[in-house]
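Open question from group meeting: does this chain pack into something compact, or does most of it stay loose? Before anyone orders reagents, we agreed to write out a predicted structure and look at it together. Recording both the input and the output here so the notebook holds the full record.
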Amino acid sequence: MSASKETSRASYPSLTLGTAHFHATHPAIIAPLMGTSRQQILAQAESMRQHPDSSAVSVIEWRVDFYRKHGQPLKVATVYQELIELFDSVPVLATLRTSAEGGQAAISDETYLEVVTALASTPGAIVIDVETARTTAREALQQLQANQVAAVGSYHDFEQTPSTFDILDRLQSMGREGYDLAKIAVTPTSPADVIRINEATYQAASVLAQPVITVAMGPLGIGSRLAGGVFGSAATFASLEAASAPGQIPVHLVAEVAQAIYSETRNLKESAP
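Structure tokens returned:
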């Protein structure tokens, strides 16, 4: 399960969803939207639309689990449609993060499936997160596929960084199961852990047909958020107003670093003999 070939970033897999382009050369920037009520969610959404750094954001991630009524499929779908219409051309990634993976939703896997099913059938839905560790993940993926909605397969470890083999195995499993994007977030406890997630990212991006998204959370993992594309990560998460995970940094900083890396890489290629 390792990649032995040398791979350039230009050859990594890519995916375009609406106006968002997922590719390691210039990773998509995903900004979280959190709110506990419909009114608060819509107010935050409007504030994000007017934010001076909003043009740098590729995707809005609506963290459904922060919504107090996240276990009620019809109410969730109603708010989701409002957000889709409000953000217009910017894709809205719906994510119902469960408490098992660091989120706010303490719900059964059956209710999880019901909510994801309602999200998938929402008019205008483009991309939805599916926690692959849920027992109903396969059914959730099938609902997204039936509605022609892209699926982000995700897994989060808030305690440690698994081995390179385990990370790669999990990402490859997402690829085999048919997810459109494969995501894993880990918690490093040493610089060696960060090296490990970068190595696994490179190997996964070199062999999967789907783009991969990897994150090392917390202070040690800031580099993975800023320069994950160097190792093959097709997107990164950054805060426009509020952070949704440990170590998340402001959009404008991520955008500046990404542009610097992209520009210098292009200059080096153009000047190479």
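Observations to bring back to the group:
The radius of gyration is 18 Å.
The chain has a mean pLDDT of 91.
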